[in-house]
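ok so heres the complex, three chains, lmk if somethin looks off
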Amino acid sequence: MQTLLRENTISMSLTNEKIKERLVEKFGDIVSNFEEPYGMLTFEAPKDHNLKVMQFLFDDPELRFQFLTDLQAVHYPLYPGRELAVVYHLHNLADNVRIRFKVFTDISQPDVYTATKLFSAANWMERETYDFYGVNFVGHPNLKRILNVDEMDYFPMRKEYPLEEQTRIDKDDEMFGRGGTIK
Amino acid sequence: MARPVRFNINPIQADMKSHILVGEAPEGHGGEGFFATSFEKVVGLARKNSIWPLPFATSCCGIEFMATMGAHYDLARFGAERVGFSPRQCDLLMVMGTIAKKMGPVVRQVYLQMAEPRWVMAVGACACSGGIFDSYSVLQGIDQVVPVDVYVPGCPPRPEAIIDGIIKIQALINEEGLRRRHGPEYKALLESYGIQ
Amino acid sequence: MSVDEHIKLPEGSIEKQTTTLNLGPTHPATHGVFQNILELDGERIVSAEQTVGYIHRAFEKIAERRPLYQITPLTDRLNYCSSPINNMGWHLTCEKLLGVKTPKRVDYLRVIIMELARIADHLICNSIVGVDAGAYTGFLYVMQYRELIYEIWEEVCGSRLTTNIGRIGGFERNFNDTAFRKLEKFLAEYPAVLKEFENLFTRNRIFMERTMGVGAISAERALNYGFTGPNLRAAGVDYDVRVHTPYSSYEDFDFIIPVGSTGDCYDRYLVRNQEMYQSLHIIRQAYKKVQEFKGKEAEVFHADVPEYYLPEKEDVYTKMEALIWHFKIIMGETDIPPGEVYMSVEGGNGELGFYLISDGGRTPYRLHFRRPCFIYYQAYEELTKGGMLSDAIITMSSLNLIAGEMDA
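and the predicted structre for the whole thing:
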């Protein structure tokens, strides 16, 4: 059964303003911080509402954001109370529109509702985000580390942890401009 | 601007007679229908020309190995035609590609399952020393977990470099004494890796 | 667990137990290192659990430490069978962030390189499907032609496999005559070889029986799982980033997107095969367009972006600004403008995306690779459940799983 995207296009004019209008109409103050860096509409919602927003974007017959392109997190150690941002990139394949949806959470209690029931693609992407940043996805079927070794006890992509392996003794840090007497 | 071709402008025509390399026979005493030499030399000669490699290909160097096995850079002409994936049957463990810390125990396990005499070749910068990935998750060289005989640097090494590594392994195999694996130095080497 | 219809066992005669089989990280069938723990009932697969991460190299963390042009060698090693596509994708992301517009000739040359990479990737995938089905000859035969592609890349950038090709704004050097002669040789010889490779497999009864109906997925499930690329097109959805969000002047080219219907291994093989023909078609058009540039225009091989593109050596030794730019670029002192950008290209496996957040420093604040292999490997259990063990092997290789891309 072929699903040709060109035949499924309802309206060619699903612009960023239209999407913003629909979102504000439905959610009011809950969605905020609308920006358009490089043409992609970006907005934010509190973490309790992430599933509601995504379900709305999925089900609405005009918006139809039914493809989850990407899910990852960003660590902002300088914003207290909003340190971890979980970023969803959604794509409307029929009208060829992309949006970016961010959810901020506190680092001391990084619980975010899982999107796996809506998008099966979110399963491993959330595991990866947990592995790197420690975001706890509530309701995830199998939240374990995926890329790092299972015994690792810290979340390596957070800004406070170093890149290099710390147990090497044969590398002269001074020659690399790290540590030593040369700052 | 166009760079003119500078090399191989007048290619030399291949001359079969001048390019045949006759293998050296080991020293010994021969006559009509017999040849007497020391056991070591014959065993070395036989072993080096019939290596059964185990390509432990993890990443990009594995693709260069596939090119080496292909028809253009033929590895089979060195006797290493039959690649096996079972460590119990192979002589040469070629570790090609990045070994992460998660994979380290697997390399060690495969090495332990190989029967003596066994050789290890680290192909590629990542297997030699961690390569360009100086990060928390990459093992900085497989010689942290297994003893290595030949290192082939490159990222990825050209097929000619991999063949050069095989030739060096062949040289090592040829000169290895029969008693080496039972000697104290070898035992000390394995002890230092924690291998009984 | 289902008992085969033809065999009826009396009640309680045999204790039913499933076998756990570890299709481990080192296995000839797993091309690259990932692990599958299969629960088998006889030969039928009951469940499959995947473990990845055996080659996790922490690209994203390394990228936070490096200036933009130093990240290109990292992107090479994502899908290493078609590394020029990754490089070009990264350069396009940087150019989108920096607001650089590349001249048409650069775009067309980039298209030639990317389509060659796509051919290289699909060649490996299709021939490995053949190897896993037991046919080694096809693989050896086409590796010969991958060598030709490697030679073309070598003429431009010096390296065969992990190319680090191109720079932000264009290429490091103009394509010389040798590169174009080699390209013409490839275009002349390759279609006949591809036809012969096709003859080995496409209507081969054994191959068809091994791949038809194996590892099928419906379009809805594929979309929900985030499939992109040939795997999605085999399932029936015609989503190709080159058409939907054209980059690097792809809108100037005329090509079709092959689409399958059932999403099984045979369809994936056919889609990749046809895509190779389409790539050849695109390369011919691009080559013709490149040859139309004459005189001064034929010398253009990069955009004018002095902050990121190394100036010519003659200028460095004679002009002041060029010397300063050279110093700033080599020492990594140029600041990236702040912003966040998401850019995706059509990689060999699907939509390869780059999400780059910059806070105005010398290195990215956050760089995330949207890796298609990682995302569609989740669906493996659904693809193989209820099938035989040998079907699982064929499915694994027809999905074109590249471990470097999966773990990054």
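quick notes: The two ends of chain C are 36 Å apart (CA to CA). thats all i got rn
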